[in-house]
Amino acid sequence: MPPTRMKAVIPAAGLGTRFLPATKAMPKEMLPVVDKPAIQYVVEEAAQAGIDDILVIIGRNKNAISNHFDSVPELEVKLKDKGDDERLRRVMASSDIADIHFVRQGEPRGLGHAVSRARAHVGDSPFAVMLGDDLIDERDPLLSTMIAEHERTGATIVALMEVDPDHIHMYGAAAVEMTENTDIVKVTGLVEKPKKEEAPSNLAIIGRYVLTPAVFDILERTQPGKGGEIQLTDALQELATAPDGPGVYGVVFRGRRYDTGDRVDYIKAIVQLAADREDLGPELRPWFKEFAATL
What is the catalytic activity of this protein (predicted)? Predict the structure, then answer.
C-alpha cells in the first residue's frame, strides 16, 4: 500500500470511432477482452496497486460502464438458485473491486481536459491516471513501481516503453537523461506524436501516469494543441522543464502490455490473454497451431 491514500482517474469519454459500428451504442471501454470488459482490467490493476478510490470520466452513452460495476441482485439471485457459484463469484467481484465514482466530461476535448475534470475529486493530492486502451499484465506490475518512485522523489511519474522508431509518431515521445537505475529516467522534454526524424528518442509514453496536483493549474491555461484538443503532454512538458519543481521521471516498462485501442492489437490482446488462461489455454494453443498451419 502506498503511504498516502492515492486515488485513480480513468478517462473514458472517447467516442471509440475506430471500433464503429460496435461502439455506436456500446462504450469502447466495455468491449470484452476474453470475458471481461477492458475497463475492468484497469480497475483491477488499480486495486492491485492499493488504490480503492477510482474516478471514471465518462461522456454520453457511457451508462453501461457504471451499470457494469453496480450489483445486479436479480442476476445474483438467479445464479445462486442455480448453484452456479463460479459465475456468481465473478459477477459479484466486479461490484466489489473498488469504490468507483463517475463524472461527465461533456464534449471530448482531449486527455488534458478529461484529467482537469478530476480536480474536485482528487483535491490537492497526487493521483494516478490510467488509460483504458492500455492493459498491463497483472504478472508485470507497473503502477506500484510508479507510485513508489513518486513517493521517493515527489515528482510526476510517467510510464515509458521502447517502441519501434517507425511507430513513435503514434505516441508522445520523451527526451530523457539516464539515472543510476536503468529503469528510471529523468524526463527533460516531451513531444506529442512526432515524426520519426524529429522524435527525441524511441521511448513512448504509455497510458499510466502518477500526477501531482500542480498539473491542474497548468491544464487550466493550456491551449488546444494537435487536433484542437488540450493535450496532457503539453502540461507534462511544462512540469518537466520547470526550474523550481521536482520535475518528471519515467519508469521504463519492459513487461507485457496489451493495446486495445487498435482493432488488430485488440484481437492480439484477446488471443494472448486467452492462450495464457488455465481454463482456456490448453484447448486453444493446439488449435492456434493448427490454424496457423493453414495460412
Answer: alpha-D-glucose 1-phosphate + UTP + H(+) = UDP-alpha-D-glucose + diphosphate
To the nearest whole number, what is the mean pLDDT of the chain?
A: 90
CATH value at residue 83? 3.90.550.10
* Residue 294 domain flag: no
C-alpha cell at 165: 522508431
Q: Any residues with CB less than 8 A from the CB of 140 and at least 6 apart, and which?
A: 253, 255, 256
18 within a domain of the structure (yes/no): yes
Measured between alpha carbons, how far is 205 from 286 in angstroms, rounded to an integer? Answer: 36
Q: Answer yes or no: is 291 within a domain.
A: no
3-state class (DSSP) for residue 277: coil
Closest-CA residue to 44 (of 151, 139, 159): 139
Where residue 291 falls (left for φ over 0; alpha for ψ -120 to 50; beta otherwise) is: alpha
The residue range of the domain holding 249 is: 7-261
Q: What's residue 105's pLDDT? A: 84
pLDDT for residue 17 is more than 90: no
Task: Report the chain's C-alpha Rg in angstroms.
Answer: 20
Burial class (CB in 10 A: 0-12, 13-18, 19+), 52: middle
Q: Distance (Å, rounded) from C-alpha 295 to C-alpha 162?
A: 30
Could you give the number of structural domains in the chain? 1
